[in-house]
Amino acid sequence: GSIHEIPECFGIAHYLEHLLFRGTENYGSQKKIAEKIERNGGYLNATTSNEKTKYYIQTKACSAKISLEILADMMFKSKLNCVDIELERRIVSNEKNQWDDDVSEYMSDKGLEFMTRNTVYKSPIIGKEKSIQNLQRYHFLMYLQTHYKPENMFLVLYGNMNKHFDDTKKA
């Protein structure tokens, strides 16, 4: 989440959330990942807050193993190529501009920024335009190495997993 960011990297957690969907070593492009999840009856998404970034897949129990393998590949074997970084930079920057164009969101952010200026919550989750424009591949790699470790993560499975638990556990 955004509380783990340094000032020159404000917005990196949210930006990285976007990038991890772009493609992996084992499952290929964003389109191939989405097709694989959807073909197995699933839905993949993510959200970033101050404290955490949450990636989730809703799927049938029989597809839990492949879903976990894809999620693990996104976390630990994401391509993070420079072309995708630039494409997502435009998308994140546009999101930021849309957010800033919404007067109520803008005022809410400014008020929150003022009230939390001396706390870890001082940065807007979406980041600052200057940092969004300056983030490079090595920033994302460093952030991944620092924060995307098993000891910083937790996994939640719920539903009727009885029949598929052993297979899923292997994933």
Q: Enumerate the strands of the largest sheet in spatial order, edge to edge or round the barrel.
A: 1-2
Our count of helices gives 8
Low-confidence stretches: none
> Shape, please?
globular
The level of helicity is 40-55%
Describe the structure.
It is a single chain. The protein has helices at 12-19, 30-39, 64-76, 82-101, 103-115, 129-134, 137-147, 165-170; strands at residues 23-24, 28-29, 43-48, 53-58. It is globular. It contains eight helices and four strands. It is mainly α. Helix 1 (12-19) crosses helix 4 (82-101). Helices cover 51% and strands 9% of the residues.
For the structure shown, list the relevant keywords.
single chain, 171 residues, mainly alpha, 4 strands
What does the secondary structure layout of this molecule look like, with pairings?
Blueprint: H1 12-19, E1 23-24, E2 28-29, H2 30-39, E3 43-48, E4 53-58, H3 64-76, H4 82-101, H5 103-115, H6 129-134, H7 137-147, H8 165-170
Antiparallel strand pairs: 1-2, 3-4
Short description:
With 171 residues, the protein is mainly alpha-helical. The protein contains eight helices and four strands.
